[in-house]
Amino acid sequence: MAIRSANLNVMMRAAEKAGRALVRDFGEVEQLQVMKKGPGDFVSNADRKAEDIIKRELQKARPDFGFLMEESGETAGADENNRFIVDPLDGTTNFLHGMPHWAVSIGLEQNGEVTTGVIYDPIKDEMFWAEKGQGAFLRDKRLRVSGRSQMHDSVFATGIPHIGIGGGPKGHALFMKRLHAVMGNSAGIRRWGTASLDLAYVAAGRYEGFWERGLHPWDVAAGWIIVKEAGGFVTDVAGRAYSLKSQDIVASNSGVQTAFCKTLRSADKE
Known about the structure:
Elements: H1 6-32, H2 39-61, E1 65-69, E2 73-75, E3 79-90, H3 92-96, E4 103-110, E5 113-121, E6 126-131, E7 135-138, E8 141-142, E9 155-158, H4 168-183, E10 188-190, H5 195-203, E11 209-213, H6 217-229, E12 233-235, E13 248-252, H7 257-268
Parallel strand pairs: 1-3, 9-10, 9-11
Antiparallel strand pairs: 1-2, 3-4, 4-5, 5-6, 6-7, 7-8, 11-13, 12-13
């Protein structure tokens, strides 16, 4: 069992505290579904409240660190080499519709490199975490990516662009070509609407791979390090090392990574 750093312990406590608040708010969602007005505002308030909890907990322990957060944006810290990258509620649409698949995601970037990640699913009480050089874990269980090496035996996950997301008609058309290509070469595709958990599931061997276009740093920072520490690959579609500025993210195990990227690239040429 890896020794958890002080930074990791702080991040896990913040994620759990925010998760408890979100679970309480999630209990009210079913009643809000019958209203014509209010659910969107309610979820936005739940999102902001969770972000406030996380920021308060992290600042208490690391007052000099900066922040990049989905709701409040970027806040520079006195320590320019360390910042937390936070999505307080990844899977907002699931949350709004009463679907129990959403998560809190916190990454720590140090000197331009994500070194620590925490993804907490409060509904299932699953805490995924990793630190550079220490491996990836689900609570105290070591995680390893799947050992499958053939795409036709593999299950993949993705995010489907929707209105206002995905680069308009051209982006939607590109997604459909990629989807068609992977469908023809895999055992199945899943779309659960929470990118952080998609990455965590790749790390846990539940999926062989995941791809999506147009994600933000807070969607992927924690999952990126968790997949890498579980023995997986995180690249762009061209197979180049992923960065938080990349347009696409492709995460997979070593067995299918080359074929997976090649399949996606072949769709782009059609």
